[in-house]
Each structure stands twice: as C-alpha cells, then as structure tokens.
## 1
Amino acid sequence: MSNQSRLSVVSGLLLSFWWAAVPALEMSGQVTAVDTTPITGVMVTATSTVPGATTTTVFSGENGEFTFPDIPGASVDDLALTVRKIGFRQSSAEFGRGTSGFTAHFKMVRVDNVADQVPPSAWLSGLSLQDRGARATVATCAGSGCHQFPDQRVQRFTLALNQSAPSEQVTPHLEQGWRSMVSYMRLMALRFAPDLGLRWGITPEDPNFARYISAENSLFNQRDEDLVATTLSHYLAGMNFEEYSADEFAVLRAPLGVTEKTVIREYDLRTDGWTREVAISPLSPYAWVVEDSKDRVGRLNLTSGHVTWSDLPEGQQGPHTINAGPDGELWISLEESFGMARLDPVTEQWRFYPDFGEFSLVHDACFNEKRVVQKDSSGRIWMTLLGTNQLASLEPESGALETVDMPVPEGESIFHAALYGCVINSDSSKLWFTHLNSTIGSFDITTGEVDAWFDMPEGSMPHRMAIDERDVVYVALSGEGQVWALDSRDPSAKPVLYDLPDRNSAPYSVTWDTHRQALWVATGNNNIIYQLNPATGKFLEFPLPRNDAFLRMIEVDQETGDLWTAYARLPVGDGPNYAVWMVPGDL
C-alpha cells in the first residue's frame, strides 16, 4: 500500500471518529504545504464506505480553503476524505470541530516523480505529432478502442513483451506481440467483455462473424494493424513506467478552470454494465442513463442517488446514444436491434421504430447547438447508420423512414469508414457528419446532395461533433488531439485547428455551451474535461476524481449550465461505472 493510500485510510478512520459528534453535514477545511503555504486546485473527495453512495468532490481555492455542499445519501459515520493533486502527496491530516461543523487541515508535499499519478496519455507524450502511425495509434487504441492507453494492464503487457524479446530479434518479436493485440481487439469489438456474448445478434456460426473479425471489415483493419504494431514495437521498447518527472508532465497541462465553487458528484450505478451516456429533459426532474450491455434505461434520482432501471421489451436491444428531443422527449438509438426509440420521460411510455435495415447500426441523432434533436422543415429527424453508411430520416408520428447512401471514402470499407457523428444547422437545411476513419462532410437536405467533403489525415479520427448558434461546426479529432472548426456560413472559410494541451488525450466529443459561449471537450485518455474559448483559442482543464474516466459525451443543462457525463470504458466491469454531475462554479 502506498503512503497516499495508507493515509487516506487513516483519514477515513479519523473522520469517522470526529464525525459522530457533528449534528449536520457541514464540512470545510484547508490544504497547505508543510510550511502552511496554501495550495490551490487540490481535489478533495468525500467518499462513503457504503456501496452505492454518492461521491462528492470539491477543490481548494486560492487560499487553499475548501467547503463541501450537502452530501446526499451520506451517513455521518462512514465517510472518508482524500486529497489529490498531481505533483503532490499528502503528508498529514488534522481533524476537528469548527464553529460551522467539521473541519479538516491537510498538508501536502511536492514530489518530483509522478509516475504513479499521471494519466495514460502522459506515457505517449514522446510520440511524434507528424507521424501518421503515431496518430493512428492514439486514435485506434485510446479513441476507438474504448479504453485508456497505456493503462496499467497495457503497461504490464508491455513490460512482459519487452522482457521476453530475444536480443537478436527484438523488433520482429515486439511487432508480432502488438499485432496479436490488434487481432484481439478485432474480436473484442464484437463483445462488451470477454465473458459476454457477441453483439449485434451475431453468432460464431453467422457468416457475419468471420466477416467482422477479418481485417478488411473490422473497425481495426490491416492498415491500422500495420501502423499500430510498427509504432508501438519501436516506441514502447524498453519503456520505463517507474519514472516520470513533474516538470515533464507540467508541459501537458492547461490552466485550471476549477474554483472553490466547483462541485463534482459521482453517482454509483451499482452495475457492471456499459452506461455510455446521460441525458436530461426539461420535462423531468431525473437524469436518464442508457445501459447498452444490459438493454435497459435508468432513471436517476438526483437527491437519493437511486437508479430505477427499466428493461427494454423483448427484441429491443442496445440502447446506445440518448438525446432530448424538441418537445422534451428522449430519443435513444438501439444499435443492437437496428432501430430507434422515443421515450416520454413523464409517462415513461415508449414508441419503437424498428425498420432501419439489417446491420444498420443506428448511431447518432442529428442535434443542434443545445445538443437537442432538431426536426427539419418537413418535421423529420435525422440520424447516422454506421453499419450501412447511410443517413436516415424519420417522421416521428407516421413512422415514415427514408435512407440516403453516403459516399464511401476512397480505400475504405463501409464498416471501417464508420459514418458517426451528426449535427444540424440553425435553419434545418443542412447536416454535418463524420466518418470515423476519414472524413468530415455536409449534406444538403433540400437538394439531397453531399455539398462539402473534407478528407482528413490518416489517424486523425474525426469523432463526435457540435455546432453553435452561428453554424460554426466543431469536431473532436481523437488521433490528432485537436478540435477542428469551420464557419459553415462562410463559403470562403478554411478549417481552424485548436491544439489540445495534451495531444494524446484522445478527445471523443465536443459540446457547445450556449451559456458560456465555449466548447466542452470530453477526453478518453487523461481523466480531464477541457473547456475551449474559441475566441481566444485558450483551454482550461477540469480534472475528474477518478482514473479510467473514459468519457464519450457531455450534456449541458440549458437552465443551470451544469454538466453531465458518464464514465464509459470497455470492457465492462473494468473501469468506474458512474454518472457524473459537474457544477463548474463559474456562473
């Protein structure tokens, strides 16, 4: 057990001792250096030892002081406090009674070696930003691979591979090891976990099984394998995961956006399922979560932290992406059963739209600047079909459905191209879309034509999208560690690229914030949410309380400006399973 872990346990015991005498859940304190110099930006987390309780995190302000709001679901005798800031370790903790309740004083010391603190992305900081193999490695392993890279399991695999390499055949040996891992990823792309069945209704006897684990049709094709195996066999050869200097890590950081008013609540969903996304509706006091691997939708009570799960009817599978609609209804893509669903969050009545076609893999509904599904002038909603490379339109009341074939990028198969994200402009005349492995484009609804097409560099991986009130389109480039932006109203405009502070953070999605006129960036590889001010090009970072915090989406509450997201790492059961509510503290 490390000193930090041991002190955290002791802190919890001390807290339990003092807490019994405190009549109300009021808690504050300060974090300082040993010489009492205040330390700002320290993450202070209150965790209950009772499984399923809500976890609350605040941050120390400029004078090192922190204050907790009410903590729902917490008991007075089972709460533990931990403090965390990369580059520091806790040295002592003192607890006592203050005029307003319980107080805590933590002292921390600087450390030079932060190897056990840095996120997986830090270990990739030496990868070239120009080398396409390096960018494809970040995109494939940490972007579309749905897990952090290189996490501790990957580090152990790397060390074992390095140690077993014959001295006279180091490079071929290491390369073959990584090729074997990519082959394994192809197989795992069809499962939620090694011990679970195949996805999308496929069986080992099904011809599609052999088809979709083949390099030609997989999400990880032969070109991906060649790039990743070659890159990693050279870059990770002899990698030392025991040393990482605090100064080296500092260059990957952005200024902190958190303040003493920032609050993060994590709701333990108490399952080993794959809870990908969270949505909120103005019609409902709850947050709504989808659990893809268990074919159900959850209603989260924000006061108690309790989740009420509702199983989908038989035959309806794979709730994947969830967004509020124009009337407050919830639209949920059913990727596993090739359909779409609409849920009334008040009556909890469903309507299912099942006829999108075999292996269509309904993915993203096209939404507007508020991340709300928006109808076109004919009253239709639009969505991407990943499995068939089509856009689809749906008239919600009649159920009328039409599909439009999209061009297949040169040299791509339909499945590997992966038609993915989708947004709709302010007058509902145009859709913007991404192909996960190649392209950003637009589709004119009135003419039925693709009227813009941007071929992206290999390995850039244009992922989820956003659009603002002025029809500026933003795209997360997972492999590049950039945000791509284009003023779609200006025919002469050129794309603008914003470099993330950590280029290996694998940004998965972007969300426009109408309150702040800023962009939120969800990352998969460094346990951080970024905020980008497009007017200045400057980033702020909002650290998350947990490791393995693979994010897919961010929802902005249009009334309060608060953020919602979920930790959604694969395989299921291998990472934290929480819905996350963040009050940034700047409004």
Note: Confidence is low (pLDDT under 50) at residues 1-24.
## 2
Amino acid sequence: MALPKQNPQSLKAWSKLQQLAKTEDLSIQKLFEKDAKRFEKYSLQFDDFLFDYSKHRITDEVKSELLNLAKEAGLKEAIQSYFNGDLINETENRAVLHTALRQSSQSNAQLPESQLAKQALNQMQTFVTKVHSGEWKTYAGEKITDVVNIGIGGSDLGPQMIVDALQYYKQDIRCHFISNVDGDPIHELLKTLDPERTLFVIVSKSFTTQETLTNANTIRKWFLKQTTEESIKHNFVAVSTNIEAVQKFGIATNNIFPMYDWVGGRFSLWSTAGLSIALTVGMPIFKELLEGAATMDLHFKETDFDKNIPVLTALISVWYNNFLNAESEAVIPYTNYLHKLAPYLQQASMESNGKSIDRNAQPVDYQTGNIVWGEPGTNAQHAFFQLIHQGTKLIPADFIGFKKALYKDQTHHDILMANFFAQTEALLKGKTRADVKRELKNQGLSTAQIEELIAFKVFDGNKPTTSLLIDKLTPKSLGKLIAMYEHKIFVQGVIWNIFSFDQWGVQLGKELATRVLEDISSDKIINQHDQSTDALLKAYKN
C-alpha cells in the first residue's frame, strides 16, 4: 500500500488551523491562567519519559484540529504501511524498515526482513564477543584496544552520537571516528594508534563512497608500512553490500557484515552499521538500545494520537512551521553526553524532509523541512539563548533532561537541572516592564537611569518549549529518544505529502565534485563551469 497523495492545504483541518493561527489568543501564560489543569491535559507519562508540551502556543481548539489534520492526512494508514514493509520509499522502490532491526518489536517480527536482521545481529554478537574476550587477535597476536569507524553520513553520525552518549557504559576499547575527507584529522589520529592493536571498521553500503574509500585507502597505506597485505584480514572488517569490492580491498569474506536496501543510511545505527557501537559498549548494551527503540515503536504504532508522543511532537512542529512561520527548532539536551544529538538530528530530519516536490511530483507551495540545531545546556545558555529570549525569531525548543546523574554527583546535577527548569520558565514568562523597573529601582538607580535601561531589559516571554524529563540516561532510554525523533520525522513527511526516505538532493554535488577533481588533477581546466568556479579553480591551481 502506497502513502496517500493529497495536498495538505486541501484538507479541512489545514484551513481551520490557518484561521486559528490568526484568531486564537496564543499567550501561553493566559492559557495557564484560564486552565488550572493545563499541565495535566498537556503532558504524558510513558515509561520513564515525562513529556510536557503545556508551554506551547496551543489551545484546545488548535490541538483538536492538529489531530484532525493527522487523521485527514491518512496518518493511521501510513503508519500501518510503514510497519508492514510496504514500498513507501517510492522513488527508490524500497520499503522503510529500520524498525525491523529492533528485534523485540512485536509489530514486524514475522517480516522476512526481521529474520535477516536477526541473522546479522547474531553475526555481530559472535564477532563482538570474540573481540572483547581476546579470542580475536590482530596480525601481531594482540588484543584489540582501539576501533576506528570509517564512514560518512549515517555511517558516522548515528554511531558516533550513540558511542558518545553511552560513554558511561563503554568497555575497555577506545573508539574513534573518521568521516571527513580532510586528510589532516586522519594523520593526527594515526599518530596516536598502534597498528598491532587497532581494528578498522569500514562502513559503506556501496563501497564506492568517495570520502570513505579515500580515507580507507589512506589508512590502508599507513597500515601496510608496518606489515603485509595478509594482515588486513586480521585488522579490517567491512559493513557493505559490495562483496567484490571489499574482497579486492583485502578484507576476508567472513569479515563482511551485511547491509540492506530497506534501511536508509541515516536510520542505520540499529543495524550492522552500528558495529562500532557494539564494539565500544558491548552487545548486551547494544541490545538494550534496540529494546528501547522497540518500546517506542510499539507506543507509536498502537497509541491513540492524542496520547502518542511522536505524533504530538510532530504535530506541534507542523503547527509552528506551517501556521506560525517558525522555520527552525532547537534541541537542547541537559547532558553533555548528548552533545552530538543535534548534528545527528540535523541529518535525520533535514535530509529526510528537506523536499520541495510532493508525492504527486508537483512543486509544493508551503513550508516543509525544519532547520534543526542546538547544543547542550548549560553551554547553550552562554551562546545562543540571547537570540531565543530577545531576538526577533520564533524558535520552539526541545529541552531534554534527566532526573538522575550517572555519576551521582548531586551538587553538579542539581545546578544543571535548576538551569533546565529556570530556562523554560524564563522563556515562558519573560520579564515585564514593571518587573524591570522595580528591579532597577531596588538597585538604587535614578529615574533617568531606569528610563535609559528599561527597554533593553524587558523580555517578551511567550517562547514555546517542550520539556522531556527522563529518569536516567540508559541505553533503553536513549533508544526510545532516538526512535521518538525518527517517528516524528515520518509523521511530518506524511502530513507534508513528501517522500521522507530518499535524498536525491545530495547527489548533484557529488557528481560535480568528480568533474572538478578531473580539472584539479589535469594541467588545465577541461570541464565547463560557471565564471566564479572557473576563477576559483585557477586561483587554487596557481
């Protein structure tokens, strides 16, 4: 079953939401004043997640019409197609089944893809167990102490984000990531590595990605300065579908882990592309990560929309993007372990929903993908929060916090979380002219001085935030969190009538880079470019 193909602007709920955006009183403080049970009505408890969306510019009428929008857009049927393995990635004629990688999910356990995923997981289990036990030896007969993940995009961002997030749970293996084709970081890393104790994991579905293969070959040359080609089978493994190319590189067939075309790169950390995660934290922790994601899968698939966290967070995003003209949204985790979360979500969201052609192959005349950005708190407070508090842009923000610190340092954690709660309150309430005047008067300033400063110290408030309060950063809670955002992206794409799971827009730059490299490598410029590019190439070559 294909996804529905209807312009969202033709839906009744869309028109009603446009009207509500113009006529509703969207003062969040007034909404709290009118409804003593607003928090109770606009929050959800799911497992160890407390999802609070009460600090949003949403009335009961707006919420009702957003839910109607999801219904009219055929979201229920689309979710069914998603989990059933229908070919919803139509432009590539593929299913979208990263959910099938989460083995405990009851929703797709009977799919053939689930059986393939189970086999791959078992292969990972065998390999990772051998590495951790010391049974797997390098060419020098040594135990692995360092793992280097060589990939880019989804083969790098997801695994790196998870490895950093789960540092508390890691084994005695150090994990490093190489993605950018910039050679300097590679050579800096190689200075720190012992080839006799390092395992290299090359992650490339096609095994032709320019950046990944350039980096892999540079590392291969460095490695072979220490030993022979026969040693490659002891220190290199690959995650790929191109068996012939991997073997040509020198990697043994039994050191190749499968990838599948029904898993998009930016959703592949749950697969063998997450091998570096499992090597770093161990298979039991990796399986807990999968279990957490599977729990969110079932919640998303089976829960009514008005109590469904991924659906609600997606609808809130659509409300701001399409009806209140907010073009970006910030993600602020109050833990440094999640410092790579925003870059990861940038790819997951912006590569998925950065589309201007709808599912009918027609140009859209409404906003689609959001700009996603952010940094951990409290660092973010001393960087870009000025813009959120007093700038001219409307920026909804997700605040992600945890009740318990992993190292149980209560002093640090209480200060951290005090800032978490204070910032959402400050963004809601702001500071009135009367408040500022009273504050300055208490500081002993004259009336003239107060009048000079007062305008600069007023905060309008009414800045929307979601608070996600989680018991503790565990592999399971992290799995739930990432799956929540995955499903949010899917819901947005359904409503916007776009295909979220292709990424044709990244291809043109790759194609042109090949031609430009020919020009750089030759004595003269042999390809035709624009005037600016020609001039820049000449300057580079001279």
Note: The longest strand covers residues 198-203.
